[in-house]
Amino acid sequence: YGLDDVCYGSDFLEFLRDVSWNHEVAGKPDESRLLKWAQYPISVYIPAGLNDAGVDMEFSCLAAMDFWNSAMALDASGLEITETDYFIWTGDEAAADINIVFKSLEEMPGKVGDIKLVLPNGLDDELGSVIPEKMELWIRSSADLGDVAIVQGVVLHEFGHTLGILGHPDCGNMDYLMIIAGGLGAMDRLDPIHLDERRIVRTIRNLPQGVQLTDFSR
To answer: DSSP assignment of 111-160, as one string?
Structure first.
């Protein structure tokens, strides 16, 4: 692939290396890690509730989840490949791979969304160092997120992080969902998830664990 933007020298592989945060272990390739789930689809638990502006948070999160699935399915159809959904809803909070949590402004100052890797001893920020088994996806529920489309864009962005795009691309192209604050206003665009980013997510899904991207070539 090439890239739509001139960043990374228009090199898809450099884009992949930068945003996937490949964790490498010298001399032990089997211990190298991508943030990549062991199996798909990833089950998501979404609590019911309104934010402080009255926006239906459950509806917004479900819509963002469905948008990822439909965008990836459309690409798969164009490639004439069969692919399961990336996300699936579950009503079982304890068994979910991803639990969405609504946070107040005081709990999330300076951020509208975040993801946390849940380890046996609690929440940890070592994203990319282990194969994920459970995550929390935090969304701020303050009144300044007073539009359904804004909330959906924020959730869409955070779902992108859970799918392995951990870094914010160093691009000036505001068409990218995953740049800093890229989710704000994304739903107003013709293509809220850029094709380059969908290709990153599909590549990560299909690469085996143990790949060291520093040494990986076409």
So the answer is: -SEEEEEEETTEEE--TTSS--S-EEEEEE--TT--SHHHHHHHHHHHHH
